[in-house]
Records
---
Amino acid sequence: MKHSVNKRKLRASIGLHTLLTVLSILWMLPVFWLLISSFRKEPGAYTPYLWPKAFTLDNYVRLFTDTRLFNFPRWFMNTLFVAVCSCLITTILTLMVAYVYSRLRFKSRRAIMNISLILGMFPGFMSMIAIYHFMKAIGLDQTLLALILVYSGGAALNYYIAKGFFDTIPKSLDEAATLDGASRHTIFWKIILPNSKPIVVNTAINAFIAPWVDFIFVSVIMKDNYNNYTVAKGLYTMVDKANIYQYYTVFCAGSVVVAIPIVLLFIRLQKYYVAGVTGGATKG
Amino acid sequence: MKRFWKDFAEGDLWVKGSCLVMGLGCLKRRQIVKGLCYLAAEILFFLFFFGFGWKYLSHFLTLGENAQLRVWNEDMQIYQRVPGDNSMLILLFSVLTIAVTVLFVCLWVMNLKSAARLCQLEKAQKHIPSFREDGRSLLNERFHVTLLAAPLTTLLLFTVLPIIFMILIAFTNFDANHQPPGNLFTWTGLQNVTDIFLGNATKTRTFTGILGWTIVWAIFATFTNYIFGMILAIIINHKLVKAKKMWRTWFMIPIAIPQFVSLLLVSRALEPTGAVNVALMELGWIKTPLPFLTDVTLSRVVVILVNMWIGIPYTMMTFSGVLMNVPEELYESASIDGAGPVRRFISITLPYMIFVTAPATITTFVGNINNFNVIYLLTAGGPASLDYYQAGKTDLLVTWLYKLTVDQHDYALASTIGIFIFMIVSICSLTVYNRTGAVKKEDMFQ
């Protein structure tokens, strides 16, 4: 009897592992394809065969040295600069807003929260033209500063996850501190923030990743100012019709370079991600 | 408010005078810095309004009368452009001026309130807070003002004003033929809305067609991900499976790669000469390339399938988190009642997962209605259709909006569509938001 149970378990285990192996190969196939394309010697987006005829590191070398048409190193520094700035601004603004809605009670609180909720439902692209002309009117179009402002301007709308987290920090902590004579300013910096490391990291990583993956707002704001492109928009330009044959493998190399740090951050983020999605539901 | 009227009516001349010269009440009661701030705000506002705002606001009703002209210059023997009104700037700065005016009125009311209150305090011979004390209250009783000031300002400038501007654009004829500064555009009332629903057969057909596909897409995209993500999570979290973390990571890597890379790559691979067709032909399964991106039905199936590739890992992660959090007592009591593994799954795990993920599912549904990346990067909305107005058969409302804005410069129509997307999204979310009751119970765990 016991023997047959073990046998059944073994069979189920093998079945499950085989299934998972097949599925993860399926999922990783495009990633693998990206990797081998980035080392492929022959140029062009399409080859009439699958496995490259020869491999080379040349694409990576060209990416960083051939800056005549596409200045990848510069784009990389642009993106890094924008990402660091907007990450700092967004994190601070988001946490401030989340703290206010979670802890402080004042007259127009409910109204402001509802308006924020409604504003978040407008499609983001709708306002990009207005933002562009607004930036142009104040002389900021085609600058990195404009990008930073655009990426961190909506910070006040993305407070839900952080607020959900703050809601779970016991209010008795605040009350004890108030009895000891701490002002709310002190409570925010000395009690709430040190107790919220996961959500600070989560907000910061999300804000940091955004400039690396957005190509829409960059296109609208930078137009044809190649020098101020970010990596996303730059790489996207490499594969338009005129350049794709020459630059496809370089594009793949650039994508790998951009993807590696993001993948690492993302894997770090995954445990917070789960908490964030379900937090709103279980924590009420 | 009632008290304010009473205080104001009882106030002395300084309080009444604050109506005209802001900060007067504060200055009289020794709140020098505050009073000067009010005064400075008033002066700055009037400088702004008459020096800058009025120039645009005065044309708000017509959005400009003088078009740009070409005038023959006899001396230089050339045509010269005489700049006319710029409708777009008139609208943009009018909105800005109105917003600033509204803020100023708020400030003006605040000024009156504080003048009236100070007058009452003085009459009652109570302590009048000094500037420093006011400042300290900003870090404590009124800390919300301090914290919200910066975020709400950026929100106003980069979200609220642009949205108001674009809503107004929906009631104009700002399209490719009416581009400032060369041409003027003007108010046309509900013309764009009637175009979509009644007037213009092509636009009506495009809108209903795309709306239908958007909804079909959102339903399929959400539920395929939901079901298969749940199954995948259950498999990975099964007690027989070893190295759970490794499996999860394998599925996370593809979605961590920026979508403009991964989707663009997949899109290239699906083209007639792309890797997928090459592979299928090398295997000898097909003779001629399959039209993955150019056949209507096939391309629609393809975007849903590729979306599963992008989306299932997300739902898998969500469900993994939920599965780990199912209260253990539930299982224990069920075991005591004699429930087997299947029974326990159907009666406990499944309902719990569905209940907990309900709000997230709605967010996903709304996200899919606006899922720009998957559609735009894969098919760019194609295959293009002559039945449609500047759109293709896999276009969603949001990608159509993008194309109309960026490629066609048909801002008026794009804004109208934007408003419709907003309506659909808000109706979906608000219904659910009110039902889940997450809002009402926010204090429960504090």
---
Amino acid sequence: MPVLSSRDGYIDYLGEVSDGLRPDGGRRANLVKSYIVETAREHRGFTGAPDALAAGLPGTAQRVGDSTMFLLQDAEGDVLAVVDGAESRFPVVHSTIAVEQADRVVRSAVMGSPHLDHVWLPGRFFDGLWDWTRETAAPGRIAKLVFDFHGRFEQSDDSWDRGPDGQEVDGYGEVDEDLQEAGGYDEVDEDLPDRETRRSHFAVEDRVDVLERKLQTIRNAYDPLQSTVRMRIPSGGRGGHEVYNDGKITNRSASFTEQLKVVELVTGVYRSVTEGVEDRLWYSTADEHGAARLAGSPVLLEFPEPIELEVLHRWADLTFGGRRNWFRLGGEPMWSGKDRTRLHVYGVDRHLWQPITLEATRNYFLLLLPEGTCGNTVNRLVTRVQGSLCPTVRTWLGDRQYEEVLASAAPLSA
Amino acid sequence: MTDLAGDPVFQLNCILWMLQPLPPELQRAREGTGPVAVLHDAGYRLHALGKPLTATPNVERFLAAEMGLKGRPAPDAIASAPSEERWLVVECKKSSFGAQSSTAKQAINLLARADDLSIVAGTAPGGARVGGAVLYATRQSETKKLQKTLDNLSKQLDNKGRKIAPISTLAINVTAGIGVSAQIVGGSLSGPAASAFAQSTLVLPAAGIDEELPRTLYLIPYDPGAVQGQDPSEQSHCLKILLARGRAEAASSIGNKSDTGTTILNADELLSKSTHGLSDYWADHNDRQRAAGLILNFVKEALRDMGKHARTRRNVPNVNEGRAPHRLEITIGSAEQRQACADAVIGYPLPGEPRPEDSFLTELPFADLPGDDTSPGR
């Protein structure tokens, strides 16, 4: 990407790249990828999202003019990406470099910094987005949904989270069509496991009206189809915008202006849900005329089918047995039951090092968030549980279902 | 075997879970998916913990003049009720008590005040009266004895022409492999609570047939007022949870900053955060100081251990301890060091877990800050 002197300059540049499609539908250049990341509500004193994103790079983050946009550069000074809205809770990284490199930059930065996280979009979030798409897109337009479930904790060894040299990897491991189209790398977790595990990966790409008639019936027939991980929203023109469950949005349309609108839509809904979650869930003590009133709501993740006990054990051993783990949780497990059937952890979420309290059994996870904890913790937990433990997980925020909170989140409800 | 059902901290946490906003049982995916918020489902909401019962001047005068009772009792929990029903005043007891004991005097004081909770509820003068009822929670084997004692105490007040609150006993039962159940045994309590607990009701299903001591998460990890009455194993368990929470708060305070410099861990603040702010309401300052000191010393030990086992001093921060207020001042030189420090704190074994060998030697300069009073006894 070029070195430009203003935010407007980059917006125009990204617009030109987006528009640079060949008449045959191919593309002249790499696609524009936008990654929504999260810091913390009101930052809690942290304003260094660009620096955190640049931490794994040879260069430092450089402000563009006097805007809120920053450059991320490599050792030669080439621009790898720009960070927009650096001072908001949800900065966005835009990049046109090869997708595997862009993914690596963002994912390494997130896993390496306690101050950054992806925005995690559970299946129910995509359900809300799909409902919105059905209502707003022309019925003949092509939409796409991708469902993925991988019973990773059913393996007996830990090869799934190790790279070829035995180093820890970030465990994303999903098939990424951007990569396939670019001739890039295959799935990360391609090592052969000792045991077979469940793995379901479905993609459906069809007209909006056809999907509206058929999709629900298909999804009701097979549980992993509740675990939506990606969706392509049809563009107003040709193509669309591919939204991933970790907050990445790939622009497959000819309009960067529209891409920004999709980013704004996803961010807006996400912010509304997350902040609504926080206000409702936080445990704190209010003064009741000199006495204490303890207020807050627990988060309950119900498993309609119990998970296997050994899966629960494996999940706990991998999650609380090492510093880097897929759930980003830490703490010491307190088991009860001779067969270790109930787990209590009074620990932390390593994103922002937030204290959390967790109960886990074969039948449910129960979570308590102290005041100040980022609601993203819930979103990440639900997304990961849905993708690896129980695709049909039902999430309750206190006595309200997650869908209720989502349904009332602006702008989907507007 | 631990008498879990008789432990007042366990009982109070069970009561609190019965009042949490959780999905009604009928709406859940199936049975066994978490604690059952029986009281919340019946419309009750937690009003306050440890709130003194203020009565009308008439009742206050009666209690002082005719019963020789002064001071306002502060029950463990008060819950508001749906519509016009009586609020619940809840006390958790390990066992019954003698009719002449100080606990009995407290019970009389409570019974006389609980009938009219209008002042406690904050009702404006002339507003609708808020009635109360008393529920004593105890282990099942003590309920009949306790109910008999409470009935006798009620009669004492009745004989003096006083209106008394309805009162019942809630039997808590822990059954290995089944779970925690509760049932109202005798007494005069009516309304939604009485209906909800008319039969033995499972409030926490066991997680498996082998689970001997099914236990909720502890919203209240530690209660200094209850420590003396706890079995040693329960005292240890509560302390372990308090230290786990304190450790998490300390790791959070260290790890969630982005800059270098000094991070101060204040013992009182750690304690407050570890108890969701409830320790701010503990009546005895000494209790707060003691518990806060336990947490801070545990964190200090974690940092000391980090220094002993570090391969390089690059990741080892400089730690100083101050006494007034009791605190640790941790000087962090890099982001890497900060994360290593937070990791060391959260990873330090809790009591009862395998611990590193104790040593009085340390590589870290643990010096008291100049000017602090470090004389013994503070």
